[in-house]
């Protein structure tokens, strides 16, 4: 089973999601830990290869967890957030910038592990 490394406040954010959302994301993370790739996980475009997004719709709200899976043995959870984009389906720029910064940090950590 691959270990999970939580970047920044991603775990704290995830723990604030509704229980049903946490369960879905937790199950999908565990599936990835055991070497699978959930059918609902999709590549997160624009930040680099090996970065995936688990998207859950619940009660007319959108919840996202973004993770890097190709940095050594660990899975790096880069960001977990409730999507509140006012510009349609696109992810807000602030969230993308945060994901990029955390991916850079995760690469550095993975290089030294």
Walk me through what this model shows:
Helix content is 36%, strand content 31%. It has one domain: YaeB-like fold (2-Layer Sandwich). A hairpin with a 2-residue loop joins strand 3 and strand 4. The two termini are 17 Å apart.
Could you give a quick summary of the protein structure above?
This protein has helices at residues 10-15, 19-33, 93-112; strands at residues 4-6, 41-43, 51-58, 61-71, 74-83. By secondary structure, it is of the alpha+beta class.
Distance between the termini: 17 Å
How large a portion of the residues is in β-strands, by DSSP E?
A: 25-35%
The CATH topology comes to YaeB-like fold
CATH architecture: 2-Layer Sandwich
Tally of helical segments: 3
Spatially, the strands of the biggest sheet line up as 1-5-4-3-2
| Average pLDDT over all residues | 92
Global geometry: globular
């Amino acid at each position: 089973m691959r270990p999970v490394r939580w970047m920044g406040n991603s775990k704290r954010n995830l723990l604030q999601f509704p229980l049903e959302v946490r369960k879905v994301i937790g199950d999908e993370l565990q599936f990835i830990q055991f070497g699978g790739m959930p059918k609902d996980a999709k590549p997160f475009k624009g930040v680099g290869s090996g970065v995936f997004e688990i998207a859950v719709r619940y009660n007319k709200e959108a919840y996202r967890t973004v993770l890097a899976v190709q940095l050594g043995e660990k899975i790096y959870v880069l960001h977990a957030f409730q999507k509140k984009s006012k510009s349609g389906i696109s992810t807000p720029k602030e969230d993308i910038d945060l994901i990029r910064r955390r991916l850079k940090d995760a690469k550095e950590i993975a290089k030294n592990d």
